[in-house]
């Protein structure tokens, strides 16, 4: 087990350490919740001021052209693309993850329904432990279409291969599980789905900016994800959608708004989808929140996902080791895989009073979050987290547990 002095020494030799200075980090706070909401890039403050005071207040509507507002979704998509193994012209930043998932699922079902070999397939495969909104979107779209589509909910990653069979039309999975941080084999599962004749959609909400992703190398079909976690785009910042180049010409979805039109300002009463990835757009874009996404993305240009992943694994290894060594006498259970190839960039720990313990940690300046049942989540964002932060966080956790300094059965706040 490393000592705190050894952790400080690691910080001093950390090649990512200079990037910490690019973020606004409250003094005395250890932030382990970047897997839920990333911290604020310093550049976001000046960017927001410039946009409001000059581009909006001074230039008003002219800024759609002068300031490049109109092209923000595709320009940001091109910046984000390398982080998920995509190329320019394959990603747009727009809407929410749920809305983009609706588009991707609708588009995938349509493609499959037009192919004689797959037209009669009606099964959509996903995990029961998938993020609930993803499941809700699939349930809602299936019910609305009323064409006999049904969800096949898989109870463990080990059951996926058997569940994806000749009845499957679309597979819809989250790469890194939001609760456990279990990471699926993106390339292997994609290949298996294709061998069964199914298309696959990946949710990268807990992957983009956290773990290396190679969508094109894996020959995936569609992907969606958010920008407010590891990409530090700000609360509720627009999400992204990726469509494989081979599908773009045939990609249609029901949310055919004017921003996805081939010529939006022609004001034609008939919809004609734009070319390429632009057809994944829908309505007028939220410019202020879109613009702030760029501040987070720009920081990634100063490093690479290999370096980020190396530090992420070191941070999570350290946390697991410290918790299991220092807190061994307490009823904690690791809910995250130990194996590197199965682990994302957060660690989940079960405790019978997990909510109360987490609230005590937050009161002591160690910010994580809580997910049912009994799960305390700790996110590790290599861009701004130090090894000494991990040591101090576990030290605080040990003190809380050892002194029983938490209140069981307390009322829950709205956002846990």
UniProtKB/TrEMBL annotation:
Modified residues (N6-(pyridoxal phosphate)lysine): 229
GO cellular component: cytoplasm
Positions that bind pyridoxal 5'-phosphate: 97-98, 131-134, 174, 203, 206, 228, 258, 284
Keywords of this entry: Hydrolase, Pyridine nucleotide biosynthesis, Pyridoxal phosphate
Pfam families named among the record's database cross-references: KYNU_C
Catalytic activity: L-kynurenine + H2O = anthranilate + L-alanine + H(+); 3-hydroxy-L-kynurenine + H2O = 3-hydroxyanthranilate + L-alanine + H(+)
InterPro entries for this protein: Kynureninase, PyrdxlP-dep_Trfase, PyrdxlP-dep_Trfase_major, PyrdxlP-dep_Trfase_small
Highest taxon above the source species: Bacteria
Pathway(s) per entry: Cofactor biosynthesis; NAD(+) biosynthesis; quinolinate from L-kynurenine: step 2/3; Amino-acid degradation; L-kynurenine degradation; L-alanine and anthranilate from L-kynurenine: step 1/1
Gene Ontology molecular function, alphabetical: kynureninase activity; pyridoxal phosphate binding
HAMAP family with a match to the protein in the record: Kynureninase
Protein name: Kynureninase
Source organism of the structure: Pollutimonas nitritireducens
Organismal lineage: Bacteria, Pseudomonadati, Pseudomonadota, Betaproteobacteria, Burkholderiales
């Amino acid at each position: 087990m490393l000592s705190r002095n050894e952790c400080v020494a690691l910080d001093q030799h950390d090649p990512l350490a200079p990037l910490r200075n690019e973020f606004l980090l409250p003094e005395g706070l250890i932030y382990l919740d970047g897997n839920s909401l990333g911290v604020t890039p310093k550049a976001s403050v000046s960017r927001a001021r410039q946009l409001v005071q000059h581009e909006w207040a001074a230039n008003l509507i002219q800024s759609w052209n002068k300031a490049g507002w109109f092209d923000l979704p595709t320009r940001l998509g091109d910046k984000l693309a390398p982080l998920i193994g995509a190329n320019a012209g394959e990603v747009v930043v727009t809407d929410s993850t749920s809305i983009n998932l609706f588009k991707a699922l609708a588009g995938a079902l349509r493609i499959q329904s037009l192919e004689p070999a797959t037209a009669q397939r009606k099964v959509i495969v996903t995990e029961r432990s998938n993020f609930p909104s993803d499941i809700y979107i699939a349930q809602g779209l299936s019910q609305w279409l009323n064409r006999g589509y049904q969800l096949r909910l898989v109870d463990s990653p080990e059951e996926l291969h058997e569940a994806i069979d000749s009845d499957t039309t679309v597979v819809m999975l989250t790469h890194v599980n939001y609760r456990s941080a279990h990471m699926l084999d993106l390339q292997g599962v994609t290949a298996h789905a294709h061998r069964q004749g199914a298309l696959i959609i990946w949710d990268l909400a807990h992957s983009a900016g956290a773990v290396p992703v190679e969508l094109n190398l894996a020959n995936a079909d569609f992907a969606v994800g958010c920008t407010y976690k590891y990409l530090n785009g700000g609360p509720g910042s627009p999400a992204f959608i990726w469509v494989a180049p081979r599908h773009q010409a045939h990609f249609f979805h029901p949310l055919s708004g004017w921003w996805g039109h081939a010529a939006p300002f022609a004001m034609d009463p008939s919809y004609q989808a734009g070319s390429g990835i632009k057809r994944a757009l829908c309505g007028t874009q939220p410019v202020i929140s879109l613009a702030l996404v760029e501040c987070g993305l720009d920081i990634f240009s100063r490093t690479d996902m290999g370096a980020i992943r190396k530090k992420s694994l070191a941070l999570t290894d350290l946390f697991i080791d410290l918790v299991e060594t220092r807190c061994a006498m307490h009823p904690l259970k690791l809910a995250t895989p130990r194996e590197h190839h199965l682990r994302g960039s957060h660690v989940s720990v079960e405790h019978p009073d997990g909510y109360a313990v987490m609230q005590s940690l937050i009161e002591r300046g160690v910010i994580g979050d809580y997910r049912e049942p009994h799960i305390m989540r700790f996110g590790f964002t290599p861009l701004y987290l130090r090894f000494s932060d991990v040591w101090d966080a576990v030290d605080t956790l040990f003190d809380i547990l050892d002194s029983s300094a938490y209140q069981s059965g307390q009322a829950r706040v709205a956002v846990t």
